[in-house]
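Hi support team,

I submitted a single chain yesterday and got back a structure, but I'm not sure I'm reading the token output correctly. Could someone confirm the output below corresponds to the sequence I sent? I've pasted both exactly as they appear in my results page.

Thanks,
R.
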Amino acid sequence: MTDASARVDSWLWAVRVYKTRSAATTACRAGHVRVNGDRAKAAQPVRPGDELRVRISGFDRILVVRKTITKRVGAALAAEAMEDRTPPRDPVPLIAQRDRGAGRPTKRERREIDRLRGRGGVSGR
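Hi R., thanks for writing in. Yes, this is the structure output for that exact sequence:
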């Protein structure tokens, strides 16, 4: 269903950014959704060409509206309705963790931990 405009919360739900429309509405109320740089209320209309910045799990997604849809559609049609301009995330560095109560690390384990943390050390075997 394509119209000239659609509600921002309905569009975010229809293109599968949020699992429920109420979750999209809650994100709008919390200020996690911006349309063309301005905070968006749930009922604000979006049109093709509008840029949305949506904050999910501490990261911003940048989406551009290609089609306005109000009903939830399949994943292929949802992908056609938006353009994802989100830059790729930096990979999360590995953190060496040991079980509590495992005791003191052996010499070999300590070298592995140092290697993971990027510390220069004795280059052994």
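A quick pointer for reading it: The longest strand covers residues 59-65. Let us know if anything else looks off.

Best,
Support desk
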